[in-house]
C-alpha cells in the first residue's frame, strides 16, 4: 500500500485548491483557528470524529482524508493551460528540439530506451523493464478518450493551427493528424512504460527530473556519469512522434514527493504559435490542476490522480514498481513511409485487412530497432545480469492484435550476443581456430589531458571481441562499439580486408562496458560521452570535446579505430597461400593510374599517393573498392579527388560515378574530395561505383583508380 502524505501539508494544499482559508474551515467545523493551524503545522492531528467533518467540508469521502494518497476533487478542476503569447510579438513555429530527430518509431525506441537505461535503479541489481504498447482506438473507445483529454477545450486551438497550416511545417503535421483522426475514425496511441526506474522525481518547477522533462528544453539530469544522453534532446522524440503534438505522463516515483509516489500525472502539448478568439498563445500547453500559488491560479501543475482517471487516460500502470509511462497521442511513423520499401504485411491480400496494417508495421519496426540497438544491454552471462528487458504488444480497442513479444538478443543478434556472453563467462580465446569461438584482444584508448594541455592522462584498455558471423546478424564484417549503458553507439566496417575473408562480427567495449575495474573506465566514459552528437550514433569531433579537451582530441578516437581495425585484421585474415586465388584475379583488373613517370623535382611539396587496393563486385554489379593512401610528411596536404575510370584499349577512358565514397581513417570526404588529417601518415577510404552508369557488364571491365589534385577534372 502507498504511504499517504502527512495530514498537515495535505490539508494545507486542499485548502489552497479549494480557495479556502484556515479561518473558514475552522468556522465550518465549529473550532478555533488555532486548532486548524496546529493540524497544518503538524503539532497535532484531528480526532477520528472530526475527520468525518473535515471530509464533508472538503466535499470528499472519509477514506480520502484517512489515506491522503490523492487530492480531493473540491475546488479547481483539471484543465489545459496554454502559455500566453510573447509580449514582444515573437512567434515560435513549433519546438525546434523536435526537429533534431525524425518522426520515426525506431528513433523513438532508441532515445526512450536509452533514457530508461539511464534511470535504472541499480541498487537492487535488476534490469529496467521497458514495454511498448501500440493501441488503436476507434468508435466509442475513441470518443471516450477524446472526452478524457478535454478535446472540446482543445478544438479551437487545433482549428487555429489548421487555418495557418500552409505556412507552418508543424501546422501541416498537426492538421494532417487531426484530419486522419476524424476522417478515418481512428487514433493510434503509443505508450512506453518503464519499471525499476527512478520516475519523474522532484518539484514541478525547481530543478529535478520532473521539471527537466516536462517544463524545460536542453536540460539533461541523468542519474549517472555512464548515462547515454547529455543534450536533453531525447525527450523531444516523444512529441515528434505525435501527429497531434500531445504526450500524457503518469509516473510512479522512487522518492516520495508531497508524501506520495503513485499516479503523478501531467500532460504536455506542443503546438505552434496561434491566435484563438483574439488572444495569442506561444505554443506549449499543459494538462493539470491549476496551481493556486501562481498568479490568478492559471498555471497548472501535476496532480495525484485516482485510479479511474488513469484508466480513462490509458495511463494505468502494472503494480507499484517505480518508473514512468509516456502516452504518445496520435503516433505516426513517417520515416517508414519515406523508406519506400515494400512491407511484407502490406503485400498480403487486402480482402483480409482488419484495419491493423499500420500498427502491425509499427510493431515490427519497434522490435527490429530494439534488437539492433540494445542487444548488448539485454545480454547477460557469468555474474553480470542484463541491464534491460524490452517487449512490444499491439492492441485495438483493448483487444490483442499481436501478443506481447519479448525481444530476445540471441535471436536478433546471435553472433554478437554470443561474443558478449563469452566475455562475461571468461570463455574467450586468443585466436579463432574453431567455429563458435570468440577471440579477445585489448586495444588502447589514450585519453588526452583536459583544458588543451599536451600529453596523455592515461591509457584505457578497451576490449575487442571477434567471432564468426551468422546469417541473422545482418551486414557482416561490422564492429559494434558501446560503452557503459551498453547501447550500440557506433557501427563501422573494417578497412583493408582482403577478398575471401570469412564473415565475422566484432564488438568493442569501452568505458564501464569493458569492466568497472578497468583502468580509466570513468574517464573514458566522460571523454566518449562528450564525443557523441545528439543522435549518439558515432564518436568524433564535437563542440563539447573541443571546449573541454582540445580541437585535436578526436584524433585519439581515430587512433583507437586504427588499433581496432588492425587487431580485427590480425584475427580474421588467413595467411596467404601459394597459388591462384579469386582475389588475385580481381586485383589484376584494378590498377593504380599513373600518367608516366615524371622526373624527380629538387624541391616542392610531395603529394599523397595510392599505396594499396582491394576490390570486389557487389550484388548489384557495382565495384566495391578499398584504397590505402601513403601520406607524405606535412601539416597541410592538398585535397585529392579519387577518380575511377574504365581501362580501354584506345581512346579516352570513360569515367564512372561514385555511388558512395566514405572515409575510413586518416581523412574526411567532402564534396567528393579527400581531405587528409594533419600529421597522419596513412589514410584509407572506401567507395562503390554507380552500377546504373556502367556502359558494360562489370565482370567484363578493368578499372583504373587515380588520385587527382583538386576537383579531379
Rg measurement, Å: 31 Å
Which bin fits the share of residues in helices? Answer: 25-40%
Structural class by helix and strand composition: alpha+beta
Number of helices: 20
User: Low-confidence parts lasting 5 or more residues at pLDDT below 50?
Assistant: 223-232, 338-355, 577-581, 595-603
> So what's the overall shape?
elongated
Main pleated sheet = 12 strands, mixed
Distance between the termini: 76 Å
Mean pLDDT, all residues: 84
The share of residues in extended strands comes to 25-35%
Structure report:
The chain has 713 residues and is α+β, with helices and mostly antiparallel strands. The strands form five sheets. Strands 1, 2, 3, 4, 5, 6, 7, 8, 9, 10, 11 and 12 form a twelve-stranded mixed sheet that branches. Strands 13-14-17-15-16 form a five-stranded mixed sheet. It has a four-stranded mixed sheet with strand order 18-27-21-22. A hairpin with a 2-residue loop joins strand 11 and strand 12 (399-406). The N and C termini lie far apart (76 Å).
